[in-house]
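Good day; I would like, with your permission, to put a structural problem before you. What I wish to show you is a protein chain and, alongside it, a tokenised description of its three-dimensional fold. Here, with my thanks, is the record as I have it:
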Amino acid sequence: MSSRRTTTIAGSLVAASFSTVLILSGTAGADDQGPGSSKGGKVIDEAPAGVKLTTALPEKISVNNSSQETDITATVKNEGTEDSGKIRLLVVGFDGLTVKNVEGCSAIPEGDLPEGSNSGFACPLDNLPAGESKSYAVDATYDLSKTGKICLPVQTSDGGKTYWQQGPVPFGTTNPSPDAPATPLLLGTDNKPVAPGADELPKTGLGRDVLPLGAAGATLIAVGAAGLWWSQLRPRRSREG
């Protein structure tokens, strides 16, 4: 089938604004998720001396073709020599990837989500000791007819600074398996879905659904804008009032 042909792997960033502007990168997880990866992650605000915060997402996930369900493991790490103090991890879904629940975390109200996202959870940590990590079980769904992205920002407890942000990194496949029980997806790969029996790969994701966001992100990246990172989380009405 022509749907088996190789397509270019792309990991382009997609911009989404929330109060200022947010750039997110995605990823998901499954039964055999493979090693964790910080692909698509960057430092934006300097952390306290001795603190080095990063995140990791699985290299592979698997999506149930009937239920669209998938499991993701999101991990935050302190690779420094000093304790982190109070921080929070955010888990945000975009496009075809919807975050349904994150164990031990609270859903971000719809009005507080960054523009363009469909779901998100906030996970507060009183402290992450030096050299330690904490993992969260993420329940999600993935609409395989679309692209899907996830973002993991690590912030101060009040959202005033973002020490690290992974994403948005896409999860996807260049070799769709619509008739199989599950579809394996790889981190950093744009999804190229195909309907059963179709002869051509449809244009989806960046080409149709999020082009304005992608263009905005490219502009911001070109000028090196610090506003690319989500610096705070507050209700939109605080801007509109």
Q: What stands out?
A: Residues 211-223 form the longest helix (13 residues). The helical segments are 211-223, 237-240. Residues 1-32, 197-229, 231-241 have pLDDT under 50 and may be disordered. The chain has two helices and 15 strands.
